[in-house]
């Protein structure tokens, strides 16, 4: 190949690299071609080198950080509030609207099905009754004829053997004994029926309760009183003191809260989703009444709703957190097992811009892990949210110290994933479900609490679906790490460096 042609190929390679912002491969190709006089061997070496370099840079470009567009965190209906995977991407408000639509449709379909089945049953019953009626009439005539014939024969026989009054008196005595025996048997039968009724009939159907009995039933038993925790008593006192500042609205709020708790105590047989609906409806009704009827300012309404949630959920916690009727516990175990299996994941695989070798950063990471674990010890949804918020702020501080610049949203999510993997919080799914079901919806739809909670839901979803491509690994390496056959080798390059930003950015 002529030297000019060889040099031209080198220039094309160089130009291609310059377009990509990478001049190294082109420059080396030029030098190789010139040093060897532009021979075919030099050309092949240059092309091979350029191809290898291009492949390397392509791998670098594919090594991108975990990125979630901020629009993906918002409600998919486009209302502007934060969505939630538990609500199928809707915010609390839109999810309830969709849920009610689906529920009304299901109720209508069930009603139509019930009417159709009832009509079919009535038609089948009418048909069977007409057939049985004809058979019963024939059988009744036969029985009547047989009884009359038997009676006539008995009367005829008695006439032959009735001889004296003594015999008649004896007959009367015998009949009296027979009647007494029949009466005794009837009484025994009544007693048996009464006993069976007492066994199989609910107590409230046997007799109408008196007013005193009603009051006694409403009053909590001593055993329940003994089970009231110190925290519950403290929350009650704080709630009453808080409501005093609201004067007349405070009295109304307290009455509504007590009525709601009494209502929920009688709705234990409802599904957890239906109980959640009751709580969400209650929050909404109280908030609207405070704003429209009592003309309370938005700031005071928010404070009141926080206290109402605390008062109610402190009492409802043991009934509605991870109930046996759900698969929350099963999901908790699955996530916990999954996180244990991913113990080998390094910050570099997730492109986490945090350098734990810096003491201050290491402290922030420990505090973040502590906060996310502490979430499980809280009983009120808002308190659990506060733990998530504190954890997130420690993460942002750790990133800021490491990079010496404010952290971005793209830096936050992978670091949150790393914190969850490292901390393996207990009952993670149960806590997320509990917050979703019973937290004041306005806190999840807007504000920093809603933003951080939505990111936590995304982090858990990512962990559940994490694969080799997510970590920039080959499938072979990923499988070996998951099986425990080997673990990633720690090298000096494993520590964080500013190059991670270049390797993991878009």
TrEMBL record:
It is found in: Cytoplasm; Early endosome; Recycling endosome. One of its GO terms (cellular component) is recycling endosome. Residues 69-103 form the A20-type domain. One of its GO terms (biological process) is protein transport. Pfam families: DUF5601, VPS9, zf-A20. InterPro entries: DUF5601, VPS9, Vps9-like, VPS9_dom_sf, Znf_A20. GO terms for molecular function: DNA binding; guanyl-nucleotide exchange factor activity; small GTPase binding; zinc ion binding. Residues 329-472 form the VPS9 domain. Residues 482-506 are annotated as: Disordered. Residues 489-506 have a biased composition (Basic and acidic residues). Keywords: Acetylation, Cytoplasm, Endocytosis, Endosome, Metal-binding, Phosphoprotein, Protein transport, Transport, Ubl conjugation, Ubl conjugation pathway, Zinc, Zinc-finger. This is Rab5 GDP/GTP exchange factor.
